[in-house]
Specification:
By secondary structure, this protein is of the alpha+beta class. It is built from 8 helices and 12 strands. It has one domain: Deoxyribonuclease I, Chain A (4-Layer Sandwich), CATH 3.60.10. Keywords: Endonuclease, Exonuclease, Hydrolase, Nuclease.
């Protein structure tokens, strides 16, 4: 089983979107968790589920693709009004059972007050100790379906956060979020095989070595993982400013 997550670059790479989709298919993933994606025009609709970002045109968003088909499974959590456009979930049959796959794209800035107005956030820890971020609410909503004993899942995407951020900016906010993810039974795939992070963002003028794209699995799946690595992409700068991350079991 091979799963990749990739931020496909969005509007800045719109002209390259068909080539980027060709590259996704060339990797032959069983499942692809994509962000900043344009919906494909030549792939059967039963193979993908797509959630467009709020108030953005042309439409792009998060997407789950499965070469063997999937069942769209929209997540209607407590905080769906605020972050529902940043998550696509789907049920995919793997072996004898269905697994949940989630593609997430957590925006950098705190959530605007109008998005969280009326939501009860009193029991939700904050990512940076101040205002709530999308990561806070996405984790809370997804944890309701991933935390129960026996749940099988893969969650991946562009989190716009990195373990190395704490060392770089003298903070502990990233550590707090990754600890919360661990407590929610999310096992980070990449650290199982690597002592440090691998760079996944290749934006001009930003040469820091940090990883903001991540993959998590349930504990049972994590134990069977064979690899998790950043893929090398020919002409990456023509397709996206992110490198994909792939795991196999």
């Amino acid at each position: 089983m091979r799963v990749i997550t990739w931020n496909m670059g969005g509007i800045a790479y719109a002209r390259s979107a068909p080539r980027a989709w060709q590259q996704v298919l060339a990797w032959d993933p069983d499942v692809a968790l994509l962000q900043e994606a344009f919906a494909p025009t030549d792939i059967p609709a039963e193979l993908w589920a797509f959630t467009p970002y709020r108030d953005i045109t042309p439409a792009r968003g998060t997407l789950v693709y499965s070469k063997n088909g999937l069942e769209a499974s929209p997540l209607q959590g407590r905080f769906h009004p605020a972050v529902g456009d940043l998550v696509t979930t789907a049920q995919i049959t793997v072996g004898p059972a269905a697994m949940l796959f989630a593609s997430i794209h957590a925006v950098v800035n705190p959530l605007s007050p109008d998005l969280i107005e009326g939501l009860d956030l009193t029991d939700v820890p904050t990512y940076e100790g101040g205002r709530h971020h999308a990561l806070d609410l996405i984790l809370e909503d997804l944890a309701t379906v991933t935390r129960p004993r026996g749940s099988r899942f893969v969650v991946g995407g562009d989190l716009n956060t990195s373990v190395r951020f704490d060392a770089m900016y003298n903070k502990d906010s990233a550590t707090r979020w990754f600890t919360r993810a661990r407590d929610a039974k999310w096992r980070a795939a990449h650290p199982k095989f690597h002592a440090g992070e691998e760079r996944t963002l290749f934006r001009k003028g930003r040469e820091e070595l940090y990883q903001i794209d991540h993959l998590f699995t349930d504990n049972q799946t994590w134990k069977t993982l064979k690899s998790c690595q950043v893929l090398q992409v020919p002409y990456l700068s023509e397709l996206s400013d992110h490198a994909p991350l792939a795991l196999e079991w």
